[in-house]
Amino acid sequence: MVQAGQRWGFGAFLLVEAVFILSAVFITAAARTSGTDIGSSVSFVLIGSMVPTVLAAAVAVTITYVRGNGPFQDLRLAWDWADVKVGLKLGVFGLVLTYAAAVVWSKVVGDTNATSAISELVDGAGLPLAAAVVMFLYVCFLGPVCEEVIYRGLLWGAIERQRWSRWAAFVLTTLIFAASHLEPLRTSLLIVIAVPIGIARLITRRLTASVVAHVINNFLPGLTLLLVSIGVMPA
């Protein structure tokens, strides 16, 4: 449902995606120019993984203030305990679905490719405890919130502004969310991961449920990254 006073659409989403990509490129270029070993720099792991997504989400929120009614109204961030319950249920379902899909996917693609870009960075950097905890908090909480603001918040709202159906918004945001991670080998797996999260947004019509589902879905992977990075679990 389009909010009265909403004056942003696909252009806003494209701007946010440009901020995400350009900031990632800038950080990588700056690291290489300074001679930083990208594969083993703790600072690069943290900055390169977190800053582009957080910055893009901040721009998305700013757009809703400048061109709309603010994030709570435009991005449907209204709090409702019923939405939290829906998010929890779909998040747990998503964990089971993701595990099953990952098992199948790893057999098809191969174990050597069964890691995300972030997990590869963490494995290569050997993060100290403080950095590992920061990465855990980002993967489990901050990252999901930022991604939901961008995709099932700003992009979903832009699609609805075109008077397309909620199902169209669900399908497009799921596909674009998966593709935007820029991990071609894992795109099919990311689509599976995104489905329960998108369903949470679809059936509640608010962002809170999808944020909760996303947090739950990321918890075990985030915990695994933490334990691997501090040496409790083998890589």
TrEMBL record:
Spans traversing the lipid bilayer: 12-31, 43-66, 86-105, 125-143, 164-182, 188-204, 211-233
GO biological process: CAAX-box protein maturation
Domain of life where this protein originates: Bacteria
InterPro entries for the chain: CAAX_protease, Rce1/LyrA-like_dom
Domain CAAX prenyl protease 2/Lysostaphin resistance protein A-like: 132-220
Molecular functions (GO terms): endopeptidase activity
Protein's recorded name: CAAX prenyl protease 2/Lysostaphin resistance protein A-like domain-containing protein
Species assigned in the record: Saccharothrix carnea
Phylogenetic placement of the source organism: Bacteria, Bacillati, Actinomycetota, Actinomycetes, Pseudonocardiales
